[in-house]
């Protein structure tokens, strides 16, 4: 069963991210032309990067939801990983390839050129390109910058495919251990604002958003229902307040700050909407929409 409400949230997440990048382009244009005007896409779109947090929570939820009826074991794990990897890489290779072709046409093949240096910076060009196309963590963004989120998605897929080797009853415990590992890594000083390598990726705080989503997926597929309408309304208002008042990006915001500001309300919102849709009680979206407007 495809949950239309979750597809709606995917669209919302994409909308937030697009407007956030439009805002960045506006700011760049204003700065480069010595202007002082305000951007048109200000307000809550200042924090439009929260769309990524919503995406990560949705990703965790969907993985648990679509595998609810799978028989655990090597076959299920392999099938899941193959389906997810083949969904990501071909499309990524096409667009990353377009970007690579543009760079060659515009800046040539010399890695010492200004254009290539602006992208790969501290990295040797060949290893940089290999890691970009394979979506492996590295100190710089992939050749197509927005691909950094896919680096994390591939990591989520790999870990979750291991979970599918074990009976479903172990999933809540595995998610708990995973979450405690990330929290423990933070206390040990492992948390970074950007995943430079596999070690940083393993302890990246935003992974908690995937775990939130997976936990919500376990609750929904287990038939847990509790105040879905009220939770939807609360989560909607919570997320809107966070978008309007969270403030500018800082190193701490990009670690645990965004997890608490955006990840938690996103998880509650997904639980509420998925439960309401399953119960055919989407009339609760009316007060939620009124809350957004307010």
Share in helix: 55-70%
Q: If you compute it from the alpha carbons, what radius of gyration comes out, rounded to the nearest whole angstrom?
A: 20 Å
Average predicted confidence as pLDDT = 91
The number of helical segments is 12
What's the main sheet like?
none
Number of extended strands: 0
Report the principal-axis shape.
globular
Helix/strand-derived category reads mainly alpha
Hey, roughly how much beta strand do the residues contain?
Answer: under 5%
Sequence stretches where pLDDT stays below 50 over 5 or more residues = none
First-to-last CA distance? 33 Å
Topology pattern, helix = H, strand = E: HHHHHHHHHHHH
At a glance:
This protein has helices spanning 4-32, 50-66, 74-107, 114-120, 125-134, 148-163, 171-187, 198-202, 207-221, 228-245, 253-278, 285-293.
Topology:
Blueprint: H1 4-32, H2 50-66, H3 74-107, H4 114-120, H5 125-134, H6 148-163, H7 171-187, H8 198-202, H9 207-221, H10 228-245, H11 253-278, H12 285-293
Helix pairs in contact: 1-2, 1-11, 2-6, 2-9, 2-11, 3-6, 7-9, 9-11, 10-11, 10-12
3D architecture notes:
The protein is mainly α and 294 residues long. It has twelve helices and no strands. α1 runs antiparallel to α11 and α7 packs antiparallel against α9. The longest helix has 34 residues. The protein is globular.
């Amino acid at each position: 069963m495809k949950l239309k409400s979750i597809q709606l949230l995917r669209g919302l997440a994409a909308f937030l991210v697009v407007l956030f990048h439009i805002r960045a382009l506006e700011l760049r244009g204003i700065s480069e032309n010595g202007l002082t005007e305000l951007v048109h896409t200000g307000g809550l779109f200042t924090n439009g990067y929260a769309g990524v947090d919503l995406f990560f929570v949705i990703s965790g939820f969907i993985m648990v939801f679509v595998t609810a009826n799978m028989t655990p074991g090597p076959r299920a794990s392999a099938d899941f990983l193959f389906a997810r990897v083949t969904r990501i890489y071909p499309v990524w290779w096409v667009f990353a390839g377009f970007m690579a072709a543009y760079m060659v046409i515009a800046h040539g093949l010399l890695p010492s050129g200004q254009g290539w240096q602006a992208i790969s910076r501290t990295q040797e060009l060949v290893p940089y390109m290999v890691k970009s196309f394979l979506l492996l963590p590295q100190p710089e963004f992939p050749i197509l910058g927005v691909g950094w989120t896919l680096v994390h998605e591939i990591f989520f897929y790999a870990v979750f495919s291991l979970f599918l080797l074990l009976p479903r009853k172990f999933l809540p415990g595995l998610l708990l251990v995973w979450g405690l590992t990330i929290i423990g890594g933070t206390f040990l000083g492992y948390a970074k604002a950007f995943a430079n390598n596999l070690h940083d990726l393993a302890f990246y705080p935003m992974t908690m958003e995937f775990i939130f989503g997976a936990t919500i997926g376990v609750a929904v597929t287990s038939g847990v229902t509790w105040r879905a309408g009220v939770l939807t309304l609360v989560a909607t208002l919570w997320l809107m307040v966070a978008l309007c008042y969270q403030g500018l990006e800082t190193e701490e915001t990009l670690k645990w700050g965004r997890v608490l500001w955006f990840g938690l309300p996103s998880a509650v919102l997904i639980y509420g909407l998925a439960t309401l849709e399953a119960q055919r009680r989407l009339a609760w979206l009316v007060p939620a929409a009124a809350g957004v407007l307010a």
